[in-house]
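Troubleshooting log. The previous structure file for this entry was overwritten by mistake, so regenerating from the original sequence record. Sequence copied from the archived sheet and checked twice against the printout by T.R.
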Amino acid sequence: MIKFVPMQVLRISYYDYRYLLLSLSVLVLSSLSANGQATNWELQIDKEGIKIFSRWKEKTGDHKVREIKATFTVAAQPEKLIAILKDADKASDWMVGAKTSAMLAVHSPKSWYAYTEFDLPWPLQNQDLVALYKIEPVGSQSTRVNINAHPDYRPEYDKIERMQHFEASWTFELLGEGKTRVSYSAFTYRKPSAPRWISDPVVQNSLWKTMSGFREVAED
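Regenerated output below.
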């Protein structure tokens, strides 16, 4: 009996690890039910200058969603960081779990649609995200890029599941001396595929890797 336990744990961990790489490629935590009001941010990872936080965010009634956030400082100007986000064709270079990515349409210098496909192991279907990006000023020293899913903007592809909800934002605060403070937060109403004790560490570490990749590209 004992020898079968590790095999079962490994099988579950592999499934949820790959599934949650998808979630963190678009940088989200799945929705769960919880009681009480929305909580404050709780620090989960503090490593190499990148901090990962999570909290409960109220949806309706006693149903809440798990929101995740990353913060770090990068040696680059906000204009370069926005340019990286606009270069959708290369997003898969730094976004964990992304198989392909592409620019769909540019509506203005401050608004565009992008597409990302996320790789999942057999027998699961790959998933994709069609999202609208909008740039807006936040005070005199900060700029925010809001991201929202628009699943009906493009027809769905065969054997690829379209993400129906996703909300996120990047905030770039100019610090001076060529440095910018970055803050990223995201959540989805998608239901969880695994218990939190399995999903949370995987999601948090995947987000850390994605932010590390973004910083590396920005400082190159």
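The radius of gyration is 18 Å. Archived copy saved in two places this time.
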